[in-house]
Design a protein that fits this description.
With 277 residues, the chain is mainly alpha-helical. 53% of the residues lie in helices and 4% in strands. The chain has 2 domains: 151 residues, Bromodomain-like; 118 residues, Cytochrome c-like domain (Cytochrome Bc1 Complex, Chain D, domain 2), CATH 1.10.760.10.
Length: 277
């Protein structure tokens, strides 16, 4: 809970709709767990598991949305901050939803352990509680499944589409930049799709801006007075709250919060925005 508040209230990262769902499920647990542990309530897992299991599901969906194309085009973040914005990307895979996923997973595992191993379920002849030995089996299984789940989740392969529509590996993008035709329909379509997926939630459909969130881009002074190289540099660097050129009071993450987008992808977005001006 403190981590999410730090990211939003101190770092200025705008929570998306899925982030708010995870907060709704995580924040009550701080009170429920504290009270239950202080009172040594044997029923605590029953109160906790509905929140943690559902939260784990939401976090897993959010992380897969960020890092894979499994749910490509299906997201609840129709307005406001994009669900695919990666405000942090530590070690190439640790994002904010990943941190929430791990927290929910730990709480779920510990609750299950408490439920099946520590709650008295029977008494022996002397009246002492008997405890089930299930922990010896369930804990290793859960741990192995968790490790495989993390290893299974992989990021989007960084690819780009050249002016002639041929898919290029990331290593070939630099050479393609010099030959990209910004008026090519394939480039404009690629830029339009990426803008709708990664940028429209903050900057509006067609780059017209969203009040109190993202500045308008199409026809803006910023876009008309700067070269593609200068616009690309701003997108790649982002704008923190301390940046004197930040006019929204909100953070724009480097690469628009999408580290998987290549220079070619970003230039396609720029070409699309210029075509709408």
């Amino acid at each position: 809970m403190c981590g999410s508040l730090y990211f939003s209230e101190i770092k200025g990262y705008v929570p998306c709709t899925l982030c708010w769902y995870q907060r709704v499920l995580m924040y009550p647990l701080t009170v429920v767990l504290a009270v239950g542990l202080l009172r040594r309530d044997w029923h605590l897992p029953y109160y906790v598991l509905p929140f943690s299991v559902l939260g784990f599901g939401v976090s897993t969906y959010h992380y897969l949305l960020e890092k894979t194309d499994i749910f490509d085009g299906t997201t609840v973040c129709r307005q406001g901050a994009s669900c695919t914005t990666q405000w942090i990307n530590w070690a190439g895979f640790v994002t904010i939803p990943f941190l929430a996923l791990i927290a929910f997973l730990i709480i779920t595992i510990m609750s299950i352990i408490a439920l099946v191993n520590w709650q008295p379920v029977a008494e022996d002849e002397e009246g002492d509680p008997l405890r089930t030995p299930w922990l010896r089996v369930t804990a290793p299984i859960v741990a192995v499944l968790a490790v495989f789940a993390v290893l299974f989740i992989t990021g989007r392969p960084p690819v780009a589409v050249a002016a002639n529509g041929v898919t290029l590996p990331a290593a070939a993008v630099d050479g393609a930049l010099m030959t990209m035709n910004p008026k090519d329909p394939a480039v404009l379509k690629h830029g339009s799709d990426l803008f709708l997926e990664a940028c429209a939630a903050c900057h509006g459909v067609g780059g017209k801006g969203v009040t109190d969130l993202g500045n308008p881009l199409t026809g803006s002074e910023f876009l008309t007075t700067k070269t593609d190289t200068e616009v690309l540099a701003v997108i790649k660097e982002g704008r923190d709250l301390s940046n004197p050129l930040n006019t929204t009071g909100l953070v724009m993450p480097p690469n628009g919060g999408r580290p998987d987008l290549t220079d070619h992808d970003l230039l396609s977005i720029i070409a699309f925005l210029r075509s709408k001006s």
